[in-house]
Amino acid sequence: MVDTNPFLPVSSSDGSYPTGPQITHRKPIKEHLTIFFGLLAVGLFAALLIGNNGSDNGHVHENQHGSLASSSSKKPEPLQPVSRGPAAGVSEKSNRLSANVNGNLPAYPWNNSMLSWQRTSFHFQPEKNWMNDPNGPMFYKGWYHFFYQYNPNAAVWGDIVWGHAVSKDLIHWLHLPLAMVADQWYDQNGVWTGSATILPNGKIVMLYTGSTVEAVQVQNLAYPADHSDPLLVHWVKYPGNPVLVPPPGTYKKDFRDPTTAWLTSEGKWRITIGSKINKTGIALIYDTKDFINYEKLDGVLHAVPGTGMWECVDFFPVSKTEENGLDTSVNGPGVKHVVKVSLDDDRHDYYAIGTYHEKNGTWIPDQPEIDVGIGIRYDYGIYYAAKTFYDQNKNRRVLWGWIGESDSEAADMKKGWASVQSIPRTILFDKKTGTHLLQWPVEEIESLRLKSNEFNQVSLLPGSVVPLDVGPATQLDILAEFEIDKELLKKATGSNITFSCSASGGAAERGALGPFGLLVLADESLSEQTPVYFYITKGSDGNLKTSFCNDQSRSSAASDVNKQIYGSFLPVLKGENLSLRVLVDHSIIESFAQGGRTVITSRLYPTKAIYEAAKVFLFNNATNASVTASLKIWQMNSAFIRPYPNK
Amino acid sequence: MKNIISFALLQIACSFTFLPVSQNSALELQGNGGNLIETTCKKTPFYNLCVSTLQSDPRGSSADVAGLARIGADKVKEKATATLGQITGLLTGAKDPKLKMALRDCVDYYNAIIKYDVPVAIEAIAKGNPKFGVQSLNDAANEADACERKFQNQPKFPISDSNKVVHDLSAVVASIVQLLL
């Protein structure tokens, strides 16, 4: 059949072709051309309009967390492959899979092969069961220590105790026995999150939240039973616990997650603990000389109305000028302080940069409009309860984050485990924007790199999909740079339309200047694919705005997994090319844009794009932008995370 | 006599001024009987189901919001257990292999609700970490959805009514636990 419209049609949100005058009979050339250009203009305009489906909703309606399409507010999209386009001699229609709306797909029968593939190879996870928050990370006597919230009895949250593991390099972990269990009245209902402080004399104190027999949240002190044991296997709880109980005016269940302590100019130790008053999230502040007796300061470190309970508060300095981390007690000119909170209400981690006023123990954000809890997130995917520590071994600040599952609990039950940790990331102040932090996987991860493949200046015309032959594609480290044809950027028409990843139609929704990027965990036929991509829009003022997104909508044939599109606005400065790093490790991918200025972590559960069937592609689904991509892709070895021999 | 009347009026006036008003944290709201059930249920997606379920339990009239959540979670488990019984009953009599497969999958989903979702929710509410309760009750609703989808190619869905109750009630209780955040 003759394709009367040689240019690719724009897909609207229900997957149908744009309606316009149907060309059913021959018309004079002039009318043909008019109709043709009219359709093109309509198509371009429609592409820009589609993104305008409401604002970027940073507050995930709890119903959508790990939820199925039926409870999401957005109508499920018919599955559509990314078209190979007329350049490859393939017309749109023959490429189309039968429209398979999510609601028609049977809930997937997970078999052992699919489930066991999901286990990661180089991300920290216990041998089985449930894990959540990172606890007490530190470097001590040659070992990196990592503790974590753990359920020894099931693959769901409950019966929480402290797991423990050690590593020489933050990558190769060895499991140790449980560090602390719920054996006291003051933590019987949960040995919850806490932080370590290393004293100047080298000794360690650990503060953690216990949920008492009466489910009151209190703070407890613990310390190593034997400081000369570099593995810190055994821990002792201070007999006089709890050292802190909820103060007057604080609800007994809104008082948890004490931070690492930092020194004041008076030589006292200071900590902060998250709480709330009505719907205002707050960080309470205490001073202590001995970690046993505390004085509560009047007021709070900071508060932001409407943000709800502040969990896992973190507070630390960053250097404005140096490329290294700072000990938590450092202060002075050239230093900014970061407040980070985990919001109970929306299960996301937020941070803000500001100034610490030591005298009265307060902190003021540099930009109140992006105050903590209402501004920038560490990660726009699944990422929660993050905590940093100062690594005195390599003079850097390192960030841990808990990555939960986004499949069903029935599947978690079947596979016998749930949750992983992100690869630890270094944190640096982003000097170029002044508003962001840069996160980057610790350099030790490069020790896992095996053979690599390089692709230079791959040309991606609009509508192209390019397979990258790298061999197995489930354990990869990908570094990529994208350059867009400058002439086409200049010529693009601006408009007032705002774009947001989560409200968009994903990678199948074509715009003039996007989407383009990578397809990971994709099978040969692209029936399953996870796009990680950029989407550029041009404002009516001529300014370009870039978004960075991760589209899960076609990541799996299974319907009982999260299919949302994650992402956010990405600051791109003049003269910067678009850069991307993606770590692929079975059911987790971590994507870093512009050197870690915007990060997205997702959990993927393909049913076909697993083992040797998983592949990686470049794609450009923009209608009006030619993109050139250069990449280096490494195979990644396993980290062989296993129990410490004989412990 | 005049003094006694004035004093009595003053007493009455005072007692009205100091009536417990539900404000501050939504958590320790006074058990206010039917009023609390109604105001709480208005914040859930299925008001009538919510009200009838909570009112049917003797604990309902004196429970605070956390208590209502606990009652709701217990009811989800009760309904899910009964539905699971229906499913296993159907399984023994089923001959068609496709029907058996669908029923077996539903057994898995309902086991997840009964063994994991509800106990996690109860523990999370009691111990003061309600977000895990919201997540697991949402999962329970999703498990019920998954079971329904298994019957898409079947002539009928034999447990349609009770499955819908499990789904809807899970969504209701998830909303109530959300209030505890």
Q: Structural class, from secondary structure content of chain B?
A: mainly alpha
Average pLDDT of chain A, to the nearest integer? 87
Q: For this structure, what is the CATH homologous superfamily of the largest domain in chain B?
A: Invertase/pectin methylesterase inhibitor family protein
N-to-C span of chain B = 53 Å
Main sheet: strands, sense, barrel of chain A = 6 strands, mixed
Helix content of chain B: over 70%
Q: Bin the strand percentage of chain A.
A: 35-45%
By CATH, the topology of the largest domain in chain B is Butyryl-CoA Dehydrogenase, subunit A, domain 3
Oligomer state equals: heterodimer
Structural class of chain A: mainly beta
Taking all Cα atoms into account, the compactness measure Rg of chain A is 26 Å
Family (chain B): Belongs to the PMEI family.
GO molecular function (chain B): enzyme inhibitor activity
InterPro entries (chain B): C/VIF1, Invertase/methylesterase_inhib, PCW_Enzyme_Inhibitor, Pectinesterase_inhib_dom
Domain Pectinesterase inhibitor (chain B): 32-176
Explain what the structure shows:
The complex is a heterodimer of chains A (647) and B (181). Chain A has 647 residues and is mainly β. The longest helix of chain A is centred in the N-terminal third of the chain and has 22 residues, at 29-50. Chain A is globular and about 70 Å long. Chain B is mainly α and 181 residues long. Chain B folds into two domains: 1-31; 33-178, Invertase/pectin methylesterase inhibitor family protein (Butyryl-CoA Dehydrogenase, subunit A, domain 3, Up-down Bundle). Chain B is 73% helix and 0% strand. Chain B has seven helices and no strands. The N and C termini of chain B lie far apart (53 Å). The A-B interface holds A 62-63, 65-68, 70-71, 103-107, 109, 154-159, 189-190, 192, 211, 215, 217, 251-254, 278, 308-309, 344-345, 347, 408-410, 413-414, 559-560 and B 24-25, 27-28, 105, 108-109, 111-112, 115-117, 119-120, 123-124, 126-132, 134-136, 138-139, 141-143, 145-147, 149-150, 152-153, 171, 174, 178, 181. Chain B: It comes from Durio zibethinus. Chain B: Residues 32-176 form the Pectinesterase inhibitor domain. Chain B: One of its GO terms (molecular function) is enzyme inhibitor activity. Chain B: InterPro entries: C/VIF1, Invertase/methylesterase_inhib, PCW_Enzyme_Inhibitor, Pectinesterase_inhib_dom.
